[in-house]
Amino acid sequence: MAYKRILTIQDISCLGQCSMTVALPIISACSHETCILPSAVLSTHTGGFTGYTVNDLSEDFPSIRQHWLKEGISFDAIYTGYLGSTKQIEYVSDIFDTLKREDAKIIVDPAMADNGKLYWGFDDEYVKGMRYLCSKADIILPNITEACFLTGIEYKESYDKAYVDELISKLSEICTGTIIITGVSYNDSEINVVIAQNGEQTAYVHKKISKSFHGTGDIFSSAFVGAYMQGKPMFDAIKIASDYTVKCIENTIDDDSHWYGTKFETAIPDLVRMLEL
Ligand code: PXL
């Protein structure tokens, strides 16, 4: 069993089962040392609540990085999600440059948009910054909407494989590493997770659940990072992350009062079983 030191940088939404409150338990459940750098603290996530509080922690980043440098701290993987500001993206880039171990993996989930729209508070400058961060990554994990914002290709509700091929082709001009597009759907019954690396493409296909749930992108990415850093081959890590995410959704689907998040906790034993550690 591997035991890697992984740094994840994303926000703490105090309530909402997304970003850090999902990444820390999931990556820990995958048996890794999980270090955190909170990008911002929000009372809730921004999807469906109103009047939430936001405290951007960007200005803590340089001194935290300096302290870690002084202590000789470095990481086997740095995995980023929802960040606090465009300025913070520069600080994250400095962290990539100075705190990764040799052979470390930089994994960027450009968590900024869904369903054709940017999340509240993000703008073109942020998209530009995220494009830059993706250019430094070994692996990027955009959904279809994020792929559109990153590439400038128009977002479409329905599309064919040629459209996804075009997204991949444009994304590979930005990131020379592995491109994983999530939530690709050509029909009502299936979801494809498309993996493009070294000029080749594969896809893991799983069943589509009609309702969409908040935080599933973060659950998927965190489980992927945990499984991949356990040494699972790319496709197997995608399969584990996808199957786990579907389980989490199935555990939530009958509870209408749980509209704001996904019950990922009760499926953690399934994730651990799938990892066969
Ligand atoms: O799950 C993505 C996410 C993370 N963090 C915050 C969000 C969202 C999506 O809305 O608002 C604060």
The succession of helices and strands, N to C, reads EHEEHEHEEEHEHHEEEHHH
Report the C-alpha radius of gyration, rounded. 17 Å
Spatial strand sequence of the major β-sheet: 3-2-1-4-5-8-9-10-11
Q: Please mark out the parts with pLDDT under 50 across 5 or more consecutive residues, or reply none.
A: none
Structural class: alpha/beta
Average pLDDT level:
97
Alpha-carbon distance between the two ends: 6 Å
Molecules bound to protein: 3-hydroxy-5-(hydroxymethyl)-2-methylisonicotinaldehyde
Residues in helices, as a percent range: 25-40%
Shape: globular
Q: Which range does the strand content fall in? A: 25-35%
Number of strands: 11
Main sheet specs: 9 strands, mixed
Count, helices: 9
Q: What characteristics describe this protein?
A:
binds 3-hydroxy-5-(hydroxymethyl)-2-methylisonicotinaldehyde; 39% helix; alpha/beta; two-stranded antiparallel ribbon; nine-stranded mixed β-sheet; globular; 277 residues
Task: Tell me what you see in this structure.
It is a single chain. With 277 residues, the chain is α/β, with parallel strands linked by helices. 39% of the residues lie in helices and 25% in strands. The chain has nine helices and eleven strands. A nine-stranded mixed β-sheet has the order 3-2-1-4-5-8-9-10-11, with helices on both faces. Strand 6 (113-114) and strand 7 form a beta hairpin. Helix 3 packs parallel to helix 4 (124-135). The longest helix has 19 residues, at 234-252. It starts with a strand and ends with a helix. The mean pLDDT is 97. 3-hydroxy-5-(hydroxymethyl)-2-methylisonicotinaldehyde is lined by residues 11, 13, 18-19, 42, 45-47, 82, 111, 119, 215, 217-218.
